[in-house]
Amino acid sequence: MASHVTSTPHEGGDTKRAVDPAAPILLFDSGVGGLTVLEEVRKALPDAPIIYTADAAGLPYGTKTEAQIAARVAGLLGRMAERFHPRLICIACNTASTIALGMVRDVLEVPVVGTVPAIKPAAAMTRSGVIGLLGTPATIRQAYVDRLEQEFAADKRLLRHGAPSLVDAAEAKLRGEPVDQNAIAQAVDALRSQPDGGAIDTVVLACTHFPLVQDELARAFGPDVRFVHGAQGIARQVSRLVAGQEYARQVPDQALFTGSGDIPEAYRMKLAQYGLLEVHRI
Q: Which sequence positions are flagged as catalytic?
């Protein structure tokens, strides 16, 4: 599935510059949603060293203010860039990207890839002309999303709903816990109950967490609804920006979580399935 993905090196930067073969690609999300992006990046670049950073202490982003998100994301990525010297940073979070991407690019001298809701491919897919968009409250209210709608779906009907409870459902599923079916039903009902909601045939998953519960959403929406999200498009953009670079994985790929406390063993086992063999708190 295609996605509207944005990526540009820092002003004056050169994505073809020589880089340390051991330099990692740094993927960043508020939680584990970015693993859906990591999965596609691994398919495209299996030899690339990876560091996955989850700001678990700041979760959820979708209920925070724009100022809080921008300051937190820019600060954390600044420290991560200084510590790990990544060849590229991927903000695998729609909320963080729609709010903080410009600020991060202004302050970091490293290529940065962000992701925004996949409205363009959804507009090309829909047959009924009615598109549902599920994101966090912070994402769906952004002017950036308004501009995407005006540019790519002006002749469609885009129905939005902020569903922060789906973030919790996705995090629980990754831990091996039952998915809250009420959260799934409420998200679906919130879209279906809007004017023309019964005609929705395409749903944009505008949060990288949400593909983790796509199967549950698909059962609730029914067989006539298709889903689109940005993971494959992000991976293509990352691949383009690092084309021709060499890789040498000198240490195991790792997942870093902000916050305190033990990381459950079920979590560690699931992360290992994504190739993240070391898990630490930072």
A: 93, 207
